[in-house]
Amino acid sequence: MRGQRHQTASGSKRRASGYVLVLGATLLISVIGLTSLTLVRVQYKVEQSGMDAIHAQMYARSGVELALSTSYVDSSWRANYASYTALMPLAFDKGTCSIAISEADGSALDTATDNPVLLTGVGTVGSAASPHAVYKWSVSAHQPAMEFLRTALHAAGSITVSGGTITAEDGPLSTNQTLTNLGTINGDVEAKVLLNAGSISGSITVNAPAKSMPSSTALDFYRSRATTLPAASIGSTLQWVVLSPQSNPYGSANADGLYYIKPGGNLTIKNCRIVGTLVVELFSGRTLTLDQGLLWQTARADYPALVLSGSCDIQMEPTLYESNLLSFNPPGTPYRGQSDTDKVDSYPSSIGGLIHVIGSTSSVLVQDSSQIVGCLVAEGPVELRNTPKLTADLDFLVDPPQRYRSSWLVLDPGTWTRITP
């Protein structure tokens, strides 16, 4: 009997141990199942969070792309910027995007200039009150130089070489209409139509695509910033003067060397040293003549040399002489770093910078030994004769004068930056 009871007790213990083992295994399976469900939920949230971040990044970039595309279809996007900001943010399927445009230093956008800008796109997934993800991109952008700035001369009207030998260096003679050559052209030519080809030493492109012209509002832009020179004091001739940021014999000097003249009739500028920009507004039918010796450079690289409303006759001589009358390199306006007060020096006569002649009926004549280093752009017809030399300034393609950029924006490579919201 004792042996039988011992066997029964041992069996009970084995059955109890088996029950505990089964129960433990069941609990372990349950825990594993719950843990797996939890891991699935965590993994889903992680994946969802990652997808939200990707969508937010895409929305932010979409804002930048929207700004670029808008600049292509709306040439007045700067002036209309406030109306675009009123539409922000724009809704997407999972959230929103918005775009802000500022000056390159982050200050408020100056709608009157064409300075480089900073584009900032913000993408949000979820609501603004309870966002799941926010991504913020910034990237620099600029308006590229207008194509005509790669030329030595570009005219919306016709170009006629009426005789002599015309030299065009580092850029072509270009017209949106017809070029007629009755002389010799040492350089390249781009024209819609070429008549009487004459002698052309460089490449010839006919049926060339028309190049966009700068806006006539450039005159308003520079006039509003200029110091006015008194027409009564100047009369019909501006001569034997030095105009610069430090010198204005007619009144206060302009820090940018920017001066405005509106003469009552024709105006001749000769035997002058100019370090700056002239804005000349003529009455209908009047002409500006640039005559004899002129040494003309801009005071600011981002300003043109001359903005003219009216016709122009450029007939300069090769040399500017002081002729015991005036020092053209006085203190404050040195020439190549040198100043003096004597009046016996001489200088190469040339105009360096952009010349913009406004008006489809404003004619331009460039003759004699005139030298222009930069670009001459004219809305009307241009005639060339004798031996003038026109040399393009290819720096304009990188840093064009203000108001002479294309209207659309292009991104600056390597400037994408993520901003922590």
Give the tags:
421 residues, alpha/beta, 2 domains, 9-stranded parallel beta barrel, 4 helices, disordered N terminus
What does this structure look like?
The chain is of the alpha/beta class and 421 residues long. The protein folds into two domains: 160 residues, no CATH class; 251 residues, no CATH class. Helix content is 21%, strand content 36%. The protein is built from four helices and 30 strands. It has a nine-stranded parallel β-barrel with strand order 5-8-6-27-25-21-19-24-26. Strands 1, 2, 3, 4, 29 and 30 form a six-stranded antiparallel beta sheet that branches. A hairpin with a 3-residue loop joins strand 1 and strand 2. The longest helix has 72 residues. 36% of the residues are buried.
Give the topology, please.
Layout: H1 2-73, H2 81-85, E1 90-91, E2 95-103, E3 117-126, E4 131-142, E5 153-155, E6 159-161, E7 165-169, E8 173-181, E9 184-186, E10 189-195, E11 199-200, E12 204-206, H3 217-223, E13 227-228, H4 231-234, E14 237-239, E15 242-243, E16 258-261, E17 267-275, E18 277-281, E19 287-297, E20 306-309, E21 311-316, E22 319-321, E23 346-348, E24 350-358, E25 364-366, E26 371-378, E27 382-384, E28 389-392, E29 410-411, E30 417-418
Parallel strand pairs: 5-8, 5-26, 6-8, 6-27, 7-9, 7-28, 8-10, 9-11, 10-12, 13-16, 14-17, 15-17, 16-18, 17-19, 18-20, 19-21, 19-24, 20-24, 21-25, 24-26, 25-27, 26-28
Antiparallel strand pairs: 1-2, 2-3, 3-4, 4-29, 4-30, 22-23
